[in-house]
Predict the 3D structure of the following.
Amino acid sequence: MESDCAPTTPEAVSPGVNGGLTVEECEKMIQKSLRTPMVKFLKENLEKSGCAIGDKFIRAINCQAKISGGYVRGEGVLVCSNHMNIQDEVNQVVIHELIHAYDDCRAANLDWTNCAHHACSEIRSGHLSGDCHFKREFLRGYMNFRGHGEECVRRRVMKSVTANPHCSEAAAKDAMEAVWDVCYNDTKPFDRAP
């Protein structure tokens, strides 16, 4: 996610809206996330790729848009505290957005306004982060037993890429289909999909 699609700045949203967390509570959960094996692995691989991340690379903010977070080139990972409720949600956002950061690091020409580039990173993040694990899908009310993973990734890619002001729904769908096989099967920095 690039700045056009980024969470809004902290103004105008009160902490804890809809049962969400305050920025301070979310910051504490981010610190716990930094100790999980998956986040440690992603941070290490970002550093190995030449993209060291500082202490403020992952931070909590309040968001006006109904999103869970985002990655913004030059700013880092933003977690929307007012849309988080539990540690697992914070962990998932951090992991998903760190995969975007990894993609941004390893692809010197990644253009977040290009629907195919954005779709590819969303496919990878959805597939590799655990966003579409059966348990999460079940809790969201999606109960397909066969093919739920790919269906979930496709649904979430479309939701994200169509939120990009540079991508119409048709352009997002065409981009997703065009890059699907290559991006879904690209599991870097993992040896295989976790």
Observations:
- Strands lie at 58-61, 69-72, 76-80.
- Confidence is low (pLDDT under 50) at residues 1-17.
- The longest strand covers residues 76-80.
